Amino acid sequence: MFIELEPIFNNEGSCKEFEYEFVPEDCAEIAVARVKGSVKNQTGIVSLTAEVSFLIDALCDRCAAPVKEENTIDISHILVSQLNDSDNDNFFLIDSMHFNLDELIREDILLSLPTKILCRDDCKGLCPYCGANLNEKQCGCKKPVDPRLEALKKFLD
Ligand SMILES: [Zn+2]
Ligand SMILES: [Zn+2]
Question: How far is the CA of 59 from the centre of ligand 2 (A)?
């Protein structure tokens, strides 16, 4: 969704609320994101706050079981139309008064995602030898011994 920021930047005390949903581009693991929030100008400072709920719909990185998980994050940024040296990371430099909110929210969602999506924290994954799902059963495969180590062992014996 695009928001016209010019009237907000130009009017102290103005506020625009928004509520909508969208499908973030190029992130396969997010099914849909729902956004509810506002952009406000308080004493010349323009801030954007929103609650974003999204559905992770992906496969476990270890065992490939489907993972469906509803997540909610709170986002908050101070929007600025130019950056000064003293500004910090909390400031978000807008590239246009015709502002693409989806792009900002998509980045916040991606930052909030874990590096690995797992069906559960202690997922045991698949056996690399027989492919058994180790969450469901112990397959009894033994880790093959490195032949070089085997030779060394014989030597030591
Ligand atoms: Zn798993
Ligand atoms: Zn196995």
Answer: 21
